[in-house]
Amino acid sequence: MEMRRDMMKIQERTGFDLAALKSLLIYSGMLWTSSVQAALIATDSFATQAGGAPSYYDTAINGGSIDNGSAQNPSVGVSGFTGAWDAIGYKTGAVQAQNGVSLTHAMSAGSAMNGSIRGYSVQGGRADLSRRVSRALTSAPTSDGTYYMSILLRKTASSTTGTLWAGLGPSERYDVFITGSTSTFIGLNAGAISFYSNGTITELLASGNVNAEETYLALLQFDYSSAGADSVTVTLYDSASVQQATRTFNNLTLNMSYLHLAICPYYSPEEAIDEFRFGTALSDVVATGTDVVAHDDLYELPAGEITITNAPSVLSNDLLADSAVLVTNVTDGTLSFNADGTFDYTAPGVATNSFWYSAVNATSTSTPAKVTLITTPPLPQIPTDPKKLHVYLLIGQSNMAGRAPYTSEEEGIIDGTFLLNGSDIWEPAEIPLNQYSTIRKELSLQKLNPGYTFAQTMAASNSAVSIGLVVNARGGTSIDLWAKGGTYYNEAIRRAQIAQTNATLKGILWHQGEADRDIPTGYINKLTNLVFNLRNDLGKPNLPFVAGEIHESVSLQINSQINQLPGLVPFSGVAGSAGLSLIDDFHFDNASQKLLGRRYAAEMQRIQTQLNSPPAFSGSIEHGSDSITWGLTNLIPGAMVDILQSPRLSPVNWSTAATFIATAPSTNWVGSAVEPQSFYTAEWR
Fold this sequence. Notes:
Layout: E1 8-11, H1 18-22, E2 25-27, E3 30-32, E4 40-44, E5 55-57, E6 86-87, E7 95-99, E8 115-119, E9 131-136, E10 145-155, E11 163-169, E12 184-189, E13 192-197, E14 200-205, E15 216-224, E16 230-237, E17 243-252, E18 258-263, E19 271-279, H2 282-285, E20 297-300, E21 307-311, E22 323-328, E23 334-337, E24 343-346, E25 352-360, E26 369-374, E27 389-396, H3 398-401, E28 417-420, E29 426-428, H4 451-461, E30 466-471, H5 487-499, E31 504-511, H6 523-537, E32 545-548, H7 556-562, H8 565-568, E33 572-575, H9 590-611, E34 616-623, E35 627-633, E36 640-647, E37 655-661, E38 667-672, E39 678-684
Parallel strand pairs: 20-26, 27-30, 27-31, 28-30, 31-32, 32-33
Antiparallel strand pairs: 1-20, 2-3, 4-19, 5-7, 6-9, 7-8, 8-19, 9-18, 10-15, 10-19, 11-12, 11-18, 12-13, 13-14, 15-16, 16-17, 21-24, 22-25, 23-24, 25-26, 28-29, 34-35, 35-38, 36-37, 36-39
Helix pairs in contact: 4-9
């Protein structure tokens, strides 16, 4: 997650070069341009017949020339193509022109909309062929600059599986449709309005949000450079000219030599396109008119800040606006609003505020638009004292990675908790907590894990410290894959060691076992070895370790062995799975992951309480000629104990006099060459 350090303006932008649009100045109620006239490179209204039977841009299955139909003229208004439509390679080129069925839109610059193009429903009895036609532009862009394309889109059914594309690309793209990085396409894809670029299809407006029988205007701004590194900004408007989506695609290598139409891979008679236009100015492809239009804006201040100075102009996403006037002031805080749309604002604190303005030009004033202003609390600060950041390592397989779906209720920063990110830097923690695992499966699989409520519980129990999580789990892994020396083990150690450079490692959470359900024999031996190796390599022989049970329906044998751990390994515990529910054969649901996380926390707190109760000296003290014997109680068999010594005159200067592993709850410790004026104490290593 990248921290937002600069003010972010989230707005309904037009997405194209408004400077080009605003070069069309309003003078005495008339539009005029500079002496350098813009060029409309190509346009096609597809079907211009007044009536009669439908005409087809058609070709044989194995290629051939196109029959444009009687009196059909695909080039309307400008001679922008080198020839007629033609099929691409050996693919069928059938698309159907619908005479008299035109798509209209208030922002369209077209003038001869007498028909449209839709998918051809059948071709030689085969309805599943990829069908495409192409046509070379007479004046394909070769010089650096900005170019514009527009096209109208509509579907006639609420749901469709069809695909109908229109776009620009190189002539050599004849083999398959969706390939290469030099082509850009806009169209209807299974009912959604989508954009293709750089080998990827991106959904701009979901199918459920695309209204049947409504015409949408797609605007594309191409920022072209012969040196490469081109970009395309796509903006989508509904029939009321309200922007529905905008997206910029960078690092492209554009080739705009050919206009392509394609139906791929299914026929789509319920989808239609119309009014392709391509030129060097926005006025070539969209009707500008004279009425000014203002769009709503949203400004979000960086977390913890309450002041904006010289905010970006509210006019930047408006049409034909020369200036702005304030209509309604903010109800709280202070606002200084300028005629150019910039402003200064000071919020009353953490709040959401708003004001209204109208955009103005020489002939009109827009309907007021709303500007929303959001201030948020400061981001949590990472403790500078390592003792104030308590770190926990979370490892294992898919339930530790998290597979439970989560809702908006669980989203957002987890109070008092930080997550070690992919750059080995602490950031405020948000789910999915396994997102930065260096060994995880794809990001879409990472969801809610027990670390969510574990961190909440641990942070709430001690407000003087913050919680740091190092989560490095991977689904489907057996315990053998976590053995010392393997990739998963090594990455857990590496990331935990990095975390300790500015924090204190306080424990390990382990959840694994589903993958070993069919071979449970020896599981406990592997688990105890894992605990020993982790503690040894992290330099913490008594580091708390809590293992979680898997669901009882998966393997009672694995759970039986997991529950042997506290009797074999000191300062270890088990988070039980009794009463938990699954979403499938192995994975806990949302409520169960939350409950499991709280059980992990309870076990961790129990073990930490043990660590806070060190061994005690008791009984008589026996002096020998060169030794002293102390009685020690409150020992935990298997735990490592340090005996600390300090000179009597310097009771804060402790040094380790001896270290041993407890074998019984109590014992006698014999110190040699004891200084009679020294202090002694014992603690867990």
